[in-house]
């Protein structure tokens, strides 16, 4: 297969375009140039390969063109998947890292544009979507204890309040809030739960799941209708490899799509086509403040991450190739919005694209109660075959989990639950 | 293996009589040497039966390189054939690539195996089939890309040898580690067509000579432990010491260290992938020149061979598709083949060979 093969739809054209951008810089600048070169070092004569006016800042693009290419990917993902409808209230999951920082910045700009259009429009019939920001305090599970959490929250507050004109609400919640109203009880509950998971990778994956629950809780409590994550292509590439390694080949495409409506508040990933390196560079060039809060991944996830990083170093398009492989796998019915009339706000020209797909696959999927992965045929058979053989509800619960969760998250001895 | 440091005073978890000699990576059981041999063979037998790999009366060629995997495979198959009365006619099939200092030595091992296991041996050589030995090829093209030639030629040589032996099936010693690695590599290169079929235990069932991999679920570690009792040959190919599949292999070994089950999990993932039905798959056809299966007009071996014989050894290596069509387009456009072959390789990496 070649990289120009069919499948992948909208992203395909996008990837090709970016590839061309990388491939066709004017000859004089090609040889000694590293993408990281600051403008004005060796490549003085050469200009941005797109506009031909400014000095290149990144990958032979000037800052403005680089910025607009990233924003273009973001916007294309939003519009071509009908991610945000005018009546939506969008919650941006903000971790302080560069990906979610860019996501926040871009959604802010998108809203500003919509507001401008709204002001200018005569009827003002359609509303403009609202934006809020969520931060999950994970100090309870031992994330970078060196930095004071109150400082970080203050910093985030200042970032969010700087995004004028439209004011955005900032919701901060701690993970232990999921368990108990009382802070200390919640914390001991959380630690007890996590300590019962012996596998380091399993613990990390479970923490991720709890983080998602916390975000969902914020969204539900505050009537948000979409949850926007900053997951980028680099993260997706790692996810594809680690899911493969964990034996989740069947459910892998579920977590890879732009839209995931398994959750009560659907999750959208508009930055899925941008590389982490690009996003970090944009933050750097635009002077957007970021903080690295998460510890580097451990266990299987850590191995995968360093493996992909090494491959990416050897070939800068490796992460995109991995994501493209993942795209060729079939998505699930919940990877689009399912409520009736959702797509009505779209212009009639593109509406059929979504509505036709809706009727195609109606088979209900059975989801793992822990990670939400759809069960594969063999897991489904296993579940059916063992039906009625369980004495306790805990054994029953364990039997409904996917094989991967049973291995790395559930304790080997179910009686200890 | 991990000669019982912790296992002192503990007994084999199967027979509870002898001291454990190794820990099975699949199950983490500590078992003794005798039980290991029994379990190992029993597991291969189960895989063969469950997947209906063989029918009674079939002629089967074992692709034998003299290395660990194929030596164990030849021994275990002949053993199981006797013990469980499969009714198979077994043969050894070796390919002589013509690599001095490597293949000639390993062929000696295969010849000893022929006598030890009483299996007839057939050797096909690159020199006879293609007119070139690997030594000669390396002289022309150098140490870069030589594995492409060797790999493509070997695949076809095995099929031709199997046809000469008039066998019904060809078995290869690919183990679980190899399978896991192939799954990963196909993801890394975006090769969805190969990704969908690389985990099949039997391939080419509609073709003349199907291939199967009885060691699909067998860990390399266990094969190594098993073959300690056998006669084997162990050196690396002199033209690719360590280079082959470098990063991915290392990654799998690291994974196995922290989670032995990961290798089987990768294979399971490979089996479970939901390949979209709208994904375009290359059409399988036959080579116009030699009749071998090919998705292009000419099979890869013929393209490579043409390059060698015409003194353009890069043909077929850089930018696959263009090189293959290139030889046709030449006649139409009258462009020099050299220009075609030596074009700057703009996008060689994403779809070409994954050489680290």
UniProtKB/TrEMBL annotation, chain A:
UniProt keywords, alphabetically: Cytoplasm, tRNA processing
Domain of life the protein comes from: Eukaryota
Pathway where it operates: tRNA modification; 5-methoxycarbonylmethyl-2-thiouridine-tRNA biosynthesis
Keyword Glycoprotein found: no
GO cellular component terms attached to this protein's record: cytosol
Chain positions covered by the region annotation Disordered: 1-41
Pfam families reported for this sequence: CTU2 (PF10288)
Descriptive protein name: Cytoplasmic tRNA 2-thiolation protein 2
Native organism: Dendrobium nobile
UniProtKB/TrEMBL annotation, chain B:
Gene3D superfamilies per record: HUPs
Source species, domain of life: Eukaryota
Family of the protein in this entry: Belongs to the TtcA family. CTU1/NCS6/ATPBD3 subfamily.
Compartments it resides in: Cytoplasm
GO cellular component, one term: mitochondrion
Residue ranges of domain tRNA(Ile)-lysidine/2-thiocytidine synthase N-terminal in the record: 60-236
Protein name, entry field: Cytoplasmic tRNA 2-thiolation protein 1
Class of this enzyme: transferase
């Amino acid at each position: 297969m070649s990289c120009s093969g069919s499948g992948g739809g909208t992203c395909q054209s996008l990837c090709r375009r970016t590839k061309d951008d990388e491939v066709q810089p004017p000859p004089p600048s090609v040889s000694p140039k590293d993408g990281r070169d600051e403008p004005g070092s060796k490549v003085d004569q050469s200009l941005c390969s797109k506009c031909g006016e400014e000095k290149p800042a990144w990958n032979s693009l000037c800052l403005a063109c680089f910025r607009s290419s990233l924003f273009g990917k973001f916007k294309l993902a939003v519009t071509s998947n009908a991610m945000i409808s005018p009546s939506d209230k969008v919650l941006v999951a903000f971790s302080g890292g560069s990906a979610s920082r860019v996501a926040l910045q871009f959604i802010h700009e998108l809203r500003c544009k919509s507001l401008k259009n709204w002001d200018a429009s005569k009827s003002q019939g359609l509303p403009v979507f609202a934006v809020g920001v969520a931060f999950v305090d994970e100090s309870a599970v031992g994330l970078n204890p060196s930095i004071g959490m109150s400082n970080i929250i203050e910093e985030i507050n200042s970032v969010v309040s700087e995004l004028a004109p439209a004011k955005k609400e900032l919701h901060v919640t701690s993970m232990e809030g999921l368990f108990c109203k009382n802070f200390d009880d919640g914390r001991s509950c959380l630690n007890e739960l996590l300590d019962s998971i012996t596998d380091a990778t399993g613990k990390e994956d479970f923490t991720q799941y709890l983080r998602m629950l916390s975000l969902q809780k914020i969204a539900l409590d505050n009537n948000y209708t979409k949850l926007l994550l900053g997951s980028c292509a680099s993260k997706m590439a790692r996810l594809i490899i680690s899911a493969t390694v964990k034996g989740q080949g069947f459910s892998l495409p579920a977590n890879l799509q732009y839209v995931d409506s398994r959750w009560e508040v659907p999750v959208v990933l508009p930055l899925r086509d941008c590389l982490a390196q690009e996003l970090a560079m944009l933050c750097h060039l635009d002077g957007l403040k970021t903080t690295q809060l998460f510890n580097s991944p451990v266990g299987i996830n850590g191995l995968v991450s360093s493996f992909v990083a090494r491959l990416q170093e050897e070939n800068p398009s490796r992460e995109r190739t991995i994501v493209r492989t993942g795209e060729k796998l079939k998505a699930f019915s919940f990877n689009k919005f399912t409520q009736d009339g959702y797509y009505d706000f779209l212009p009639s020209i593109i509406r059929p694209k979504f509505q036709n797909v809706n009727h195609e696959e109606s088979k209900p999927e059975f989801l793992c109660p822990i990670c939400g992965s759809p069960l594969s045929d063999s897991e489904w058979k296993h579940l059916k075959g063992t039906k009625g053989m369980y004495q306790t509800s805990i054994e029953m619960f364990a039997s409904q989990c996917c094989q991967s969760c049973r291995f790395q998250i559930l304790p080997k001895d179910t009686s200890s639950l | 293996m991990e000669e019982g440091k912790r296992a002192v005073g503990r007994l084999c978890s199967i027979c509870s009589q002898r001291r454990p000699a190794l820990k099975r990576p699949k199950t983490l059981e500590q078992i003794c040497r005798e039980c290991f041999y029994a379990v190992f063979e029993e597991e291969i037998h189960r895989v063969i039966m469950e997947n209906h790999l063989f029918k009674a009366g079939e002629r089967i060629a074992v692709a034998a390189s003299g290395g660990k995997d194929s030596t164990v495979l030849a021994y275990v198959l002949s053993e199981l054939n006797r013990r469980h009365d499969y009714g198979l006619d077994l043969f050894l099939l070796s390919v002589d690539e013509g690599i001095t200092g490597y293949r000639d030595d390993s062929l000696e091992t295969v010849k000893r195996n022929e006598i030890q296991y009483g299996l007839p041996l057939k050797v096909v050589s690159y020199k006879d089939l293609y007119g070139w030995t690997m030594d000669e090829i390396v002289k022309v093209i150098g140490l870069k890309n030589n594995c492409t030639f060797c790999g493509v030629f070997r695949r076809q040589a095995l099929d031709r040898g199997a046809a000469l032996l008039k066998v019904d099936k060809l078995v290869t010693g690919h183990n679980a580690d190899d399978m896991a690695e192939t799954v990963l590599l196909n993801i890394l290169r975006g090769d969805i067509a190969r990704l969908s079929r690389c985990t099949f235990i039997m391939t080419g069932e509609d073709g003349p000579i199907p291939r199967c991999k009885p060691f699909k679920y067998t860990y390399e570690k266990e094969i190594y432990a098993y073959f300690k009792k056998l006669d084997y040959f162990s050196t690396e190919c002199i033209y690719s010491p360590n280079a082959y599949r470098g990063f991915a292999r290392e990654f799998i070994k690291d994974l196995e260290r922290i989670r032995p089950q990961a290798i089987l999990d990768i294979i399971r993932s490979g089996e479970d992938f939901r390949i979209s039905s709208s994904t375009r798959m290359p059409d399988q056809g036959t080579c116009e020149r030699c009749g071998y299966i090919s998705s292009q007009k000419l099979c890869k071996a013929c393209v490579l061979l043409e390059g060698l014989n015409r003194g353009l050894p890069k043909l077929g290596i850089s930018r696959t598709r263009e090189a293959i069509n290139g030889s046709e387009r030449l006649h139409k456009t009258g462009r020099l083949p050299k220009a075609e072959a030596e074009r700057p390789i703009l996008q060689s990496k994403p779809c070409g060979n994954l050489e680290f």
